[in-house]
Amino acid sequence: MAKQIRIENVFKVFGDQPKQALDLVRQGLSKQQILERTGQSIGVFDADFTIEAGEIFVVMGLSGSGKSTLVRMLNRLIEPTSGRIVVDGQDINGLNDQDLRALRRKDISMVFQSFALMPHMTVLDNTAFGLEMAGVDKGTRQKAAQEALEQVGLGAWGASYPDELSGGMQQRVGLARALASDPSILLMDEAFSALDPIIRTEMQSELLRLQESKRRTIVFISHDLDEAMRIGDRIAIMKDGQVIQVGTPDEILRSPANDYVRSFIKGVDAAAVFKASDIARQALTIVSEHSDRGCRAALRLIEDSDRDHAYVLNARRRLLGVVSAQSLRDALHGREGMLGLQHAFIDNVVPIDAATPVADLFGPMASAPCPLPVLGEDRKFLGVISRTTMMRFLDRDTPPVPPPQPVQPPVTLNPMFPTGDADTPAMLHEHSDAPATDKENKHE
Ligand SMILES: Nc1ncnc2c1ncn2[C@@H]1O[C@H](COP(=O)(O)OP(=O)(O)OP(=O)(O)O)[C@@H](O)[C@H]1O
Ligand SMILES: [Mg+2]
C-alpha cells in the first residue's frame, strides 16, 4: 500500500543558531546574507505540502536549493529543525530508534545517484544487501532480491559481478536493491542523473512501468525538467530552501508562479511533453443520425457559423467524416433532393490519436487538408488541431496550452432546420463549440 506524506511547516537550518537564522529569514534576508552574517545555512524553509499516496512527486530546483535536504528529512537521514513529517498519519519525528529502523527497512527505501555496489559480491547479493543488514534470513532475502532483479529486467544477472554490468545496469541493481524490501515509499535523489540520455529515458519508462504494476509513493529529485514533466504526477519547485510552487506539470507550464519558475520551464521541450489531446480545440460538429441526407442543412450550418469545416459524428461521438463548405457545394452541384453527408466527405483526413506527442504532429499537419480530428478512447472525437493551433503552441511567449475551454452542451436545433429543405435531417445537432468567435480552427 502506497502511503501519504504530509510535510508540515518543516524547517532545516544547518548550524548551531537555528533560531537566529530563522528570525533573519522572516525579516527578509536572503540565504546568502544570513550565511554571511551568522554562518548558519538555511537548508529548507517552511516546507508545507502533501505528497499523495501513489503519486510520483518530483522535486526540482537549482543546486543548493534544498532538494536533498528536504527528501532526507522524509526518512530522517536529516533531522528537521522544526515542523512535522507525517507518514500515513504517523509523525515520524516521534519514532524511537528501533521504530525508525523498521520504517527505513520496511516502508521507505532510498535510491541515490551512484550506488556503491560491492565489487566482490554478486549482483544478487548486492541486491539483497539491505535485507541482509536488516537481519533477514538468507533464503527469504535471496528470493526477494531475485524478484526485485526480475522487476528491473535483470533476472538473469544475479550470479554476475558488478564490473560485468554497464552503468545503466548497475543503476538498475541500485533500484532493485531499493525494491527488494517492497517499500511503500521510494525516495530517489537524482537517481538517473548520471546516466546517458537514452538509458535515462529507458529507466524513466521502467519506473513508470513499475508504477503501473504496483503503485508506490515516489519522491524523485531531478534537475531535468523534461524528466520531471515526463514522470511527475506533480512537481515542486524549490529556491533557496523554499518551495515556490507545487502543481501538476500542466499547471506549472500553464501558470508559473513567478519568474524563477518561468525561467525553469523556458527550456522545456513542450512539444515532447504535450499530447495531441492537450492542444485539441473544439470545432463545429454535426451529429448525423441519418446518413442518407443532410448536405444542404450542413452547408447552411457551416455558412451560418462562419466556419470552413464541420466534423460529422454519430450519436456516440464517433467520427464519421469531415465536410467543408466547398465539398458540400461540390457534392450538391447539379443535384436535386436529399443527399447523404458521406457524399461530401473530404478525402485523406487521417485522424490523430489523442496520445500522440505534439512533436510528432508536424508531418501529418503539413499535408492535412483540414484541421485534423483528434480521437480518444474508442475513437471518440475530442476536437481538432489546425496549423494555427500548432503555431500558437510553438510560440512560447504565449502559454503553451490554451486554458481549458468550457464545454457547451450540444444544441438541438429545430428538427426542421434550417428551412425545410428536402434533405433536412431528422436530427441535426449543432455543437458549435466555444469560443464562438474562435477563428483558430480556420485552417488559414
Ligand atoms: N551538512 C550540511 N552542513 C551545512 N550545510 C549544508 C549541509 N547539507 C546541506 N547544506 C546546505 O543546505 C543547502 C541545501 O543543500 P542541498 O544539498 O539540500 O541542495 P540540493 O538542492 O540537493 O543541491 P544539489 O542539486 O547540488 O544536490 C545548501 O546551501 C547546502 O550548502
Ligand atoms: Mg542534492
UniProtKB/TrEMBL annotation:
Transmembrane segments annotated in the record for this chain: none
Subcellular location: Cell inner membrane
Ranges of biased composition (kind: Basic and acidic residues): 428-444
Membrane topology, record value: Peripheral membrane protein
Highest taxon listed in the record's lineage: Bacteria
A GO molecular-function annotation: ABC-type quaternary ammonium compound transporting activity
Pfam family, one: ABC_tran
Catalysed reactions, semicolon-separated: a quaternary ammonium(out) + ATP + H2O = a quaternary ammonium(in) + ADP + phosphate + H(+)
Gene Ontology BP annotations: amino acid transport; glycine betaine transport; response to osmotic stress
All copies of domain ABC transporter, residue ranges: 5-265
Keyword check for Transport: yes
Keywords linked to the UniProt accession: ATP-binding, Cell inner membrane, Cell membrane, Membrane, Nucleotide-binding, Transport
SMART domains, sorted: AAA
EC number: 7.6.2.9
Gene3D superfamilies hit by this protein: CBS-domain, P-loop containing nucleotide triphosphate hydrolases
A cellular component term, taken from the record's GO annotations: plasma membrane
Biased composition (Pro residues): 399-409
Family from the record: Belongs to the ABC transporter superfamily.
Quaternary structure and interacting proteins, as annotated: The complex is probably composed of two ATP-binding proteins, two transmembrane proteins and a solute-binding protein.
Annotated protein name in UniProt: Quaternary amine transport ATP-binding protein
